[in-house]
Structures are given as structure tokens and as C-alpha cells.
Amino acid sequence: MGATSLDPEGAIEQHSGGSVRAFRAGFENQLRRDLLSGLRDGQNSGLVTTSALELGIDLPDLSVGFIIGCPRSATSLYQRLGRFGRHAPCDIFIINDGSPAADQLTSDPDRLLQLPLQSSTLYLDNPRIQYIHTLCQAREDGWSEMDSPPESFNSDVDFPSGFLELCRKELHGESVGDLRGLRPAGDEAAHLVYPLRDCDLQFVVKLSYRGLVEKLGTLTFGQVLRDAYPGAVYWHAGRAYRVVTVQVNRHVVMVQPCSGFFTKPKVIPSVLQPDLSSDGLLSWSGLDDLSLIECQLQARECVAGFQERRGSNSQAIDYPLQRDNPSGTEYVYPRFCRHIETTGVVLRHASFNNPQVRLSEIADTLLEAFLQTVPIERQDISVGPGTVRINRNEIARGDRFISVYDRTYGSLRLSGFMRDERTLRNTFDRALLLAQSGLVSDRVTLDSLESLCQCAKSQAVNLAISDANDSPPASDALAGRVRVIRPGSRGVHREHGAAFEVISVFYAPDGLRYRGKFDHQRAEEVPGSIPASSILELPGESEFSWFDPPSGEVFANASDRAE
Known about the structure:
- The protein has 563 residues and is of the alpha+beta class.
- Helix content is 21%, strand content 31%.
- Strands 10, 11, 12, 13, 14, 15, 16 and 17 form an eight-stranded antiparallel beta sheet that branches. A five-stranded mixed beta sheet has the order 6-5-9-8-7.
- Helix 5 (127-141) crosses helix 6, helix 9 packs across helix 10 and helix 10 (421-439) runs antiparallel to helix 11 (443-456).
- The radius of gyration is 25 Å and the shape is globular.
């Protein structure tokens, strides 16, 4: 398995020569301090870093900087420039990473001075963000440490709906449902675990080797999907580790030392399920033949395997993983996924139903144009095509759509900028220019995008939302039966996004429960039970039955015989 020492410093010296070190958010505090002090006192000649060094770091003697790709906003650019030349002149180089934005900057450097400032965006109705700030309030006031805490938490501030109620429940130790999973492990403060507006799940990376367990920092679920999926070679502080298992429901990534190989995830298209019921819709407008819908949305992002490079040799490794695969790890499912409950803007046009129109190319082009129009970070937003699953207003089951959606749990409604008519027109105009420069490969797809641009120039009309086509209710009042996920089918946990296979359904004193297993659990592990309210539909996979509470039987339909 490669290196045999747990000493990270020795491994860093081996892989980087002790000169240039790696830095990102989520490192342990001591390692962060060592890296920064090493740069200050000259032990290290440089850092390769993510945007984690944009804010709050004072390194006055940096004289040379390299920025990979084009910054999305003037805010990001100036923050990066501000790390250099504090006491003396410096040189800054912007490297073309091959992206459309960087290509445009290379051909027209003056665009760098025209970047917009990044807007402050915080969607306060996101319950996950509210609960993280509730935890901060509880920490500041020491509610858990008081012998006689106050009876209530009051404020004259006009907080968003639900926040004061969460504070009251936390003060009294009452249940907050699935939000409880956001509590940091141990005695860590929420202030230090969560950034201001990032409510993604935080995974602890643990090294297990020769009977010892060592914490190697934290990752968000998005970072796990990119860098620490099952079987991946995960690099931390200059050293390589093989990901042995990802325990999604426990928020843990287990790794072991390995040789210095490199892996790249095989990402498959996201599965998008917009909620077009009256409860899920936020707005619906029409611009000529274009429907523009902002709504609640579930997105499933998946890795189906990875490409592993060992020196000059490269090999594709697909899930599921058997013990004899080159990575030496095991993963029994065909995909590793995360599920996001968020919001998005759905675009629907008649031309999308033409099978010759390459929706994925239009989607990718729109995303690039949107990021050039609105100064937000790429990791906060995504886009993809999908198929409507219900009849709704003028949209029919089977119609194809494109959705721009937030990649933050609970949403920041960044995709909602698309509803602004000026932003929409500028996005489509930029998309058409990008398409004509080569991002779209055929005439039929380009014609579809040109039609969107024409629609965007028309006046938007708000459309009425009808309840006529809503999904069937969760229970049948006449039969007294409750709609449940069919045993043998799968759902997804609403809080941490792990897929859950339902084995049986039963009633307990605390209500309806499922007995079953999460994807990462081994076949020999004993099934556990979980409240049915914690498991959501998995679009395209979940099948349903009807549960009869008095008899405990499961029926195919509300009035059928028991299965």
C-alpha cells in the first residue's frame, strides 16, 4: 500500500521537495498554521491553493502569483491580487486554463477590468442555514451549559419565518428533526465548521492504519464527489491516500496510505426532478414559446467509476468494485451519488422535444454564459437536461427541459437570477455567441438556441398556477391507507442524501418507519429502521405501495389485496 509512516510532514517532503505546498479549506488548524508560518519564514517557497486564501490572510512578502483561469468577479480578482505585493512590487500571471472565459480574456485582456463585483446573496428561508445560525446562537449564549436557561429566546429583529422557533427548540432541547444531523461532531463550534452560507454536509476524513485512527480534516459532500469517492486516490497535504469507504449517513470518509497515483471521477449526467406541484412552484412565466419556471427541485449527482493513472499508464475502473480490482477496495453499487433538495429555474421550449436537438450542449453553453453574466462561483451552480414526469399546465409528461439549479442544500436561489429579464436576455445573447464560436456542434441545436434568444426578447407574462394536475395525495382517506415506498425499492434520506433500500414498513410508537439499509452498508450488516418521513422519493427509481396501519399489510393499490 505504499508509504508506511503516519508522519504527514515526511510525506510532504517526499512528494513536493519541501518547497511548494498544498493548501485548501478543511485542513486541521495545526496544519493550516504550519503551512502559513512556513511560507512566512521562508521554509516553503510557495503554496498551491484553492480560493481558501482569498480572505483574511496576511502574507506581506509574496512577490509572484499565478491565477489559473479567469476569475468570475472583480471581487474575487481583487481579493487574490491583494495577497501579493503588500510591501514591494510583484508579478501576477493569469494562466489560460482552456475555458471559454479564459479564452475570451486572452483575446481581449481589457475584459479583466470589466468584471462585475460579486453580489452578496443569502437565502434566509433555507432551514439548514437557519439551524446553523441557531447553533451559533446557542454556542454564544451557552444554552447547553446553563443550570437554569431562559424560558424563551426573544428578539426585536424581524427574522425570517421559522428561525425563532428553531432557537426555542434548541434552547429547550426539543427535536428539530433531520436538521439535528448538522450538529458538529464533538465540541466543535458551528462558527468554525460552517462558512457563512455553505450548508453542505461536512465529512470527516479519517486515516485508519495499523490500529491507529487519525483525522485528516474535513470535506463537503461536493468535494467528496470530486475527490474522495469510493476507490479514489485522495491527496492530502502532499500525500496520497486510497478511499476505502464513504459512510454517508455517518459523514465519514475512511482512507489508507497508498502509492502516489491519480484518479479522476467518471461523472454521469445529473438526474433532475422539478416539483411542479402548487407547493413546489415559486414562479411561472411565459416569454412567447418559452416557459420559465422557478421551483423546488431534487438533483441527483453521480459518479459511476474513475480513471486511474499510474505513471504513463491509465485505466478505466467502473463501479461496482470487487476486491480484485486495481484499487483494492470494494463498492457494491453501480453509482455513488448525492441527492440535493434545492431550487432551480426550468426552461421549456417546443424545440427541445426534437430528438436531434442536443440539450446537453445547450445546457453547457447556457451555464457558461450565465456565469459570465452573473458573478457567482461555478461550484455554487449547475445545469442539466431532464424530462417532465407529470402533466402541468401546457407542459406534458415526457417533455424535455433544461434546468439551471443551485448546488447548495436547501438552495441560495442563485439560479433565480435567471428570472430577471435583463439577465435572461444577456445570458442567451452570450450563449449564442459562445455557440457560434464552436460550443454547439450542429445546425439543428444552434437553431433551437436562436429560438430561445428570440423568445427572451419578448415581454414576460406571469402564468396562473393550477392545482388540477398535482400529484396524488400521500394517503387515501376512503381506504385509510398510507402511500409508502414499496419494499424492495429505494428512496433517499432527506438530510444526508444517502440512498436507502426499503425492506419492510411498520408502525412504531413514534410513527411510520422503514426497515432497510443505506447504499454503503454491506450485505451482512443487520438492517436498521428509520422514520418514513426521513426518506424521500428517488426520481426514476422509487416505486410505491399502500400501507394499511390496522393490519400492517402492504397493498399494491388503495383497494387491492395484500401483496
